Structure formats: C-alpha cells, structure tokens
Amino acid sequence: MSHHLLLTRKLALDADTLGEAEVATAPRHSLALLARELGSSLHPPVDRAPGLADRLAARLLPDAAAWTQASALAERLGPDDRVYCGSEVPGYALAARLRPRPEGPRLTLFVHNVDRPRARAALRLWNLPRRVERFLACSQPQVDYLHASGVERDRAVFVWDHTDTRFFTPGPVSSTKQRPGLVSVGLEQRDYRTLAAASGDLDLDVRISGFSRDTHVSERAFPPVLPANMTRQFYPWPDLRQLYRDADAVVVSLFPNPYAAGVQGLMEAMACARPVIVSTTVGLASYIHPEASIAVPTGDVDALRRAICWVLDHPAEARAMGERGRELALQRHTMEQYVRTLAEFSR
Questions:
Q1: Cα dist. 12→51, 168, 306 in Å?
Q2: What 3-state class would DSSP assign to 326?
C-alpha cells in the first residue's frame, strides 16, 4: 500500500521544505505537511496532450488538463493504494477513471461546493459515491447534500477548515496608522457594494485585499466607483498579516451562498485576534460564534453599519471578542489539527 496526493498545480519545493516554510514570510502548506505525515507521492498536472475521452469529459466538467492528470495517475494505481485530493474537479476526474470500490484504489476527496449543477451531474453520471471512499467538506450544507444524495453518513464528513495559526498571530499595530480601519479579504461571493454603502461616509479607512482577472467577478463584488476611504490592492503575505493586525474589525461581507465562501478571511482574522463582522450565510453558519464575531444579514446595509459603529465605540468589548476568536482558532482551526484529521481519513 502507498499514499498519493493529487495536486492542482506544480509545487516548486519538496514537501519537507514547504512544510517548514518560514513563518516570518509565508504560511505553511497543509498538503506538504500531509505528504510528510503519510509519506505520500505528489502528483502535479502532467505535460501531455489530453486524449479524446478526456476532452469529451471536460465538456461537462472542465478542465481537460485535470482529466489528463487523472488518467495518467489512474494507470499507475493499484487496488491497495490510497489517494487524497483536496480539489473537486481533479478529484471527480480521478474517481471517474478508477474502478468502483472496493476493487479500486481508495480515494478521499475534499469537496467545497458539490451542490451546483455540473457537480451534481458528475455525481450521477459517473456514480461517484461508488468510486469515492470518503467525502470531506468544510461546510455542513455540502455534507447534508451528499447525505441526501445517497452517500452514507460515515462517508460524507464535516471537517473544520484551517489556517496557519503560527503565521497569522496577534501583533503590534503599525506606527503609521492614523485613524480607525476595516479590513476585508478575498473575492469569492464577496459583497463589497454593501460594505461600501455601510462605511463610505465614515471617518475610517477600508482596505481590501482582493484581486481577480475575472472582470465579471470584480464587477459583481465592487461598486462602480469606490468610496474615497476604500482602497483595493494585492498584499504580500507579511503585509496581509499586518493588515489584519492593524484592523479595528475584519468584515466578511458576502452574498448568500451554500458553501464556506469567506471562511479563510474569517479564520485568519480570528487567528490574529481581531473582531469579525460576518454575513450570515448558511455555508458559514457552523463558523459564526456569538462571542467571537458579530453576525449581520446578507445585503443589510443598516445592520452592517451598526455593527461597524459598535466595534469602534466599544474597544474593550471588541478586543475581548478578538481574543475569544484567537482561542477558537487554536481550538479548532490549526493546520496541525487539520492535517491529523486528513491523515486519519486517508489511512
């Protein structure tokens, strides 16, 4: 028996080096730690042209490169091998290329948004429940959907998502900070239009770390014109950590969605002991703790504004909220705990 990790991109460093990344410059890589824990072989995308079968499959579930990667790995696996994949499309592709359980290799697949049209079609077309040993998800609605689709309860399991709590830590505020500030991170399902409407006329800075080449995503997320107090740019890892430390509050403003969009920014803010204001989506419901965050309805400008003003007007209570968030991050969102959980299921 041997362990294998299916990767979505080529990694320039080996697993040991990635696992010991300098915490001063970047977070560690959870898959690198998992590979070292299991003694896994790493399988990045392959450099070969997709065959006809892979091109046809990619019409339903893009992209062709993922299908080519899956086909190449499936040819090498034996019935006793164990495989972990943390991304849906490559994982679906590999499952479709494997023999059904229990004859085939055992695949553990982490899914993020399985309850969407193409993913639902893939589950049915390739009968993935028969080919995947265990589904893991960091959002309870996704687990519930798999159960409703016929996957046994012990084979579709909720797992707390993770961040590197050795990298994202509390720290001193920048000496250059001149007035209160809000921070928000990411673009997936982000609703910065509501944040702009709630804070655009307040005497504070709103700094956003979010970039995408997808024009449609940006147009949906942002107002046509940013308020004068709102800026948006890319921040390297150390600068992003300092951005969190400087924030009077971290805002996770979201459109309604059924998966854990926004969870990374939420966990990073908690790890840095910052108070969090977060939209109440069903996908994030498990993560919203009343002692560590303020929950506001999606799209509610007035509620978001009240939450922002409360944080600014109650610094002691906001500081206690951030400290409770740090405690929760250390209890349930550490990279070490996440890797141990994945390793147990992969074995």
A1: 27, 23, 46
A2: helix
pTM above 0.85, yes or no: yes
Residue 60 near residue 125 (C-beta atoms within 8 A) = yes
In angstroms, rounded to a whole number, what is the distance separating the alpha carbons of residues 255 and 278? 11
Predicted pLDDT of residue 100? 79
Number of neighbouring beta carbons within 10 Å of residue 231: 12
Residue tagged 């996440």 (tokens): 338
CB 42 within 8 A of CB 11: yes
**Cα–Cα dist 296/185, whole Å:** 17
CA distance linking residue 186 with residue 342, whole number of Å: 25
Backbone φ, ψ for residue 177 (5° rounding): -65, 130
β-strand pairing of 249-252 with 106-111: unpaired
Q: Taking a C-beta distance cutoff of 8 angstroms, is the pair 189, 262 a contact?
A: yes
DSSP 82-136: EEEE-SHHHHHHHHHHSPPTTTS-EEEEEES--SSHHHHHHHHHTTGGGT-SEEE
Place of tokens 């944080």: 311
Give the span between the Cα atoms of 210 and 196, in whole angstroms. Answer: 15
Residue 60 CA to residue 49 CA, distance in Å, equals 18
Q: What share of the chain is helix, strand, coil (3-state, %, to 5)?
A: 45, 15, 40
Write down all domains in the chain, each with its CATH number in brackets: 3-159 (3.40.50), 181-332 (3.40.50.2000)
Query: 134 forms bridges with which residues in the sheet?
Result: 108
The two three-digit tokens of residue 14, written as one number: 């080996």
> What does the pLDDT look like over 8-32, one tens digit per residue?
887 654 544 454 555 578 999 999 9
Phi first, then psi: what are they for 134, rounded to 5°? -150, 135
The SS3 of residue 5 is strand
Q: What is the dihedral of CA 252, 255, 260, 264, to 10 degrees?
A: -30
Q: Residue 164's closest CA among 42, 264, 36? A: 264
Q: What is the pLDDT, as a whole number, of residue 39?
A: 94
- Eight-state DSSP code of residue 35: H
Secondary structure of residue 227 in the 3-state scheme: coil
